[in-house]
Amino acid sequence: MKGTAYLIQGTLVSLWWLGLVISEGFYKAFQFPEISSVAFNSFFAPDILVITVLSVLRAYKPIRELELMILGGFAYGSFYCLNASILTFGGYLPTSIMVLGLFYNLFLVYQSKVFRESKAKNPIQNGLKTIFQIICVWSITLVLFPWIIIDAFEIQQISSQLIKISSYLIFTLSSILGIWSAYTIVKHGDGTPLPADQTKKLVTNGPYEYVRNPMAIAGMGQGFALSLSFGSIHILVYTIIGGLLWQIVVRPMEEKNMLKRFGEEYQKYHKNVNLWIPKLKKNSTQ
After folding, report:
1. Which residues are CB-contacts of 160 (< 8 A; sequence separation ≥ 6)?
2. DSSP assigned state of 122
3. What is the model's pTM?
């Protein structure tokens, strides 16, 4: 499980450098104003040796020290990029990528501390926390990151009126599904959607009666709607990568945690309800 996560990381970093080499537009999108290309390219060897090679080694050798070395590489790179963005008033895309990589590795290294049950018993308190979570997550994933991508690649909104209307409809329906899922979690699970503040009960109501991960479907739908609205392949790639990382890395860890907490009840639910494709017939686990 962890090995796959590190192998994906090493592959993505390698593909990123390959993109920088073969595409001038891609290379330009990741530059910092007033920082020379020589200074930027000097990170090639450290990236390949400290992140790519060590990630591939960690994929096959479960050594804790390798994980900490990779995490340290991302920490150094993230703080460098943050400082560079502050000094140059630019380079927000590479900085965002490095910070995301840092949090990804923090998740991998300290995943055992990520999944915790909510301590709040009051549904109103859980509801307020969930609203705050939705505002923060949607602001970052659906506003900040897409804006950074649009700005870096100088994307112009050129979609036709029909495509715009379609994208608005998909975004609205996806958002409704996400809110409905969050409401169901608060009402029936005694917790919030956040893994670090998760439910005390297994939720099989509402949209969870038809599909196991409606919030993931909602997020993918929102990202697809944004890419459609702006006619942007870059936002679509961002959405697909996010979905793949959730599917391959986060989901197995989440399901392992739920199996540990809910046992046979979750086994039955997992067997009867699909992951991505909704069943029109309600599940029989309730």
Report:
1. none
2. -
3. 0.89
